[in-house]
Amino acid sequence: MTSVRVLDLEGAMATSVAITVDVLDTANRLALRSGRANQFDVQPWVANGYGDATDPVDLVVVPGLGMRNTQEVRSRLAAPDARAGAHYLKEAAAAGSEIAASCAGVFLLAEAGILDQRRATTTWWLAPLFACRYPAVRLTPADLVVTDGPVTTAGAALAHLDLMLTLVGRHGGEALARECARYLAVDRRRSQSPYVMPETVEGADSDVAIARSWALQHLDTSIGVRDLAAAAHLSPRTFTRRISEATGMSPARFLRRLRVERAVELLHNTDLAVTGVAHAVGYSDPTALRRAMSQELGMSPRTVRGQRTRAH
Predict the structure, then answer these.
(1) Nearest 10 degrees: CA dihedral of 174, 177, 181, 183?
(2) pTM for the whole thing?
(3) What was the pLDDT predicted at 53?
(4) Between 280 and 191, where is the model more confident?
(5) Domain spans of the chain, in order of start
(6) Which residues make Cβ contacts (< 8 Å) with residue 35, sequence separation at least 6?
(7) Which residues contact residue 162 at a Cβ distance below 8 angstroms, ignoring those fewer than 6 apart?
(8) Homologous superfamily of 206-311 in CATH?
(9) Alpha carbon 114 to chain centroid distance?
(10) CATH number of 2-195
(11) pLDDT of 188-222, one tens digit each?
(12) Nearest to residue 163, comparing CAs of 14, 23, 45, 66?
């Protein structure tokens, strides 16, 4: 059986924590169904000292950390629990543990020095900061999941699902990983390029950033492409070209992504009913929100909210 420790730091994304537990629990149940023993034994680690590197563990998983901008990343990495987490990771790696992380959690691995001279990926929008801060890491931000020796990293937050399926394959066998993917109704993906979310990227088009900022303040209204273009002081045609160059999306897709991002935040952080969440992000009814979330995330509002309630 593979022993797994999950670094449950302050600010860990509820979705990532829940995905870790759900995927490994699913793998265990499917293994038992086929006559095998449980494959994974999962325990938490927190910065108050519950669990240390002297307590051997096969695999350490770092869920994504919720970050809003690059300054928050810098501040978060300097926090005492983050420093303790990085120290634990360094000791665990030295003791022979396999290490895995997704999204901004990959920064902790780099802080511990265990990514030096290794290939790695992280969330696309923090890739410029990561590359500048950790030049010894061979960053490949277009990749969704990267394994280099005993270290596996994954991209943006929802890539944590792909990370966990990869780990199930490494420790429980590819057949079990494929069965988990089928059971969870997800596809195995390789690139995060098609899933880029329209968050502010260092060096991004400033007019697009202005439009995004304006849109976030008006998501509960019926806004469209012309409104976004006007906010950026551009013609609709010029705005369409600029947003495509900056994000690879059409303006309509860009706006839908913004609405879905906000909906996920509200589902995780408030008790608003799904109808209320739909109205808050500019949809007239919950059916429209469900359709948008299915198109962008492959998940329903109920599933996203359920991940929050199972995480802690």
Answers:
(1) 120
(2) 0.64
(3) 53
(4) 280
(5) 2-195, 206-311
(6) none
(7) 144, 145, 154, 188, 189
(8) Homeodomain-like (1.10.10.60)
(9) 20
(10) 3.40.50.880
(11) 665 555 455 555 443 446 788 788 889 989 999 98
(12) 23
In terms of DSSP bridges, do strands 98-102 and 119-120 run parallel, antiparallel, or are they unpaired? Answer: unpaired
Give the pair of three-digit tokens for residue 38.
């449980």
Tokens of 254: 């860009």
Predicted confidence (pLDDT) per residue in 148-162, tens digit: 999 999 987 678 999
Token pair of 213, please? 């900022």
pLDDT tens-place string over residues 165-175: 999 999 999 99
Predicted confidence at residue 157, as pLDDT, reads: 66
Say if residue 308's pLDDT is above 50: yes
